[in-house]
Amino acid sequence: MTTPSTRTVPTTKAWIIAVFVVFTLSGLDIATWLGRIPSVRDSLGASTFEMGLLVLGMAVGSIGGLTFAGHIVAKLGARRGVQVAAACLAVGMIFAGVAVTLGWGFAAIWIALIAFGFGNGLCDVSMNVSGAAAEKAGGRTIMPLFHAAFSLGTLAGAGLGALAERFEIPVSWHFIVLVVITSAAMLVAVTKFQDEHRFEQPVSTDTSPVATPLTRWQVWAQPSTLLIGVIVLGMALAEGSANDWLPLAMIDGHGLDNAGGAAVLTVFLAAMTAGRVAGSPLIDKFGRVPILRISAAVAVVGLGMLIFIDNVPLAIVGVVLWGLGASLGFPMGMSAAADDPRTAAAKVSAVATIGYVAFLAGPPLIGFLGEEIGLLGALLIVFVFIIAAGLASGAARETGAAARPTRSTGDVDGGGEPRLQADSAATAASAATASDAASTRDSSDDVDGGGARTDVPSARGHHAG
Questions:
Q1: Tens-place pLDDT, residues 300-331
Q2: Do the domain assignments include residue 3?
Q3: What gap in Å lies between CA 455 and CA 217, rounded to an integer?
Q4: Residue 21: Cβ-neighbour burial (10 angstroms; 0-12, 13-18, 19+)
Q5: What is the CATH number of the domain that holds 261?
Q6: DSSP letter, residue 338
């Protein structure tokens, strides 16, 4: 990475700090909704099946946000993208909170969650595009720290949700106060965003439209793409299912109250954050494949304890193991997809698409199954997919020039949320830098945040996740 001579250090530093702030606030917003799901269910008197439909509403909105994000960011820039996203997040969360408190019914909350999901998807892409460009402006790898900020935001949001449940704070007041603060802070932070489009290589927009469409379809025929997709699918499902269903699983399956269920979600998110912070040196030392296998085993043991052991303290220990085991799998899978700089952009996009299926389709499916067999029983589907991810872990073995310590650092950029677009941007950019070839750099620049964003129309983010 090189720092442009036209960009001053103070300006770049302010930009980087602003991206940190937006990542943190995005995680805080998401976890605020997740932490109050038990209260929403009680207010509606909803069944598990109906809660699955609510989660699906947010998924629909997120897909819409991702679908339009590429066009919005390409035409207006990441700064405007975050501004529009902040407005959607505020409208969606305030409307949802008021609808819950005043008893406006299921349909009103579902519509509110579509708006909230749209804002989440748009914010996800916008902040990651700006983050990738800020990383290049700073001349050093900082994308993993952006993801850590998102994880800390989710942790803070879940903790506040647990306190709100404990003190029986109305959902409307909680949502209104929180989203007014976070949206205002986002709008202030993005004033420090720089124009990421000025940071792109001028030739990239000329070459990528020609090369990318063919490569994008060809990578789907590669067995390695599908196997890495299995890894990402299993680990993304492990993360997304906990975010949406862990509080209710602890309430329905282990007899906790609403505050206890929200607190256990906080424990899971803390374990995820700790795993991501501590995992990078382990990956550097032992490589992806051993860490993936160990991660899958730890997650399986933890989830098994939650499902099969009727003891709350041991179930919470299982939640910790589940969070630790799920923390590294998704970002390692994304890095593996970018090992070959010739196909990095297209392969990351393909694998991201598979992962987003888990983030969006997995939780509603668990809700529908939970209606018939209970939530703990429905989580067995996650159990099976984590095992499959562990069995497929050999596909993530480091190959070629991309297997460098700088790329290993990118393995732990998790978030989540989810965040798929940032993983795509960081890993593709790292692969391009390692190859030191101009044509490859053009391709990765498109993923990082410029003209043709090949990963946006077909994938979420994140997960988070």
A1: 999 999 999 999 999 999 999 999 999 888 77
A2: no
A3: 13
A4: buried
A5: 1.20.1250.20
A6: T
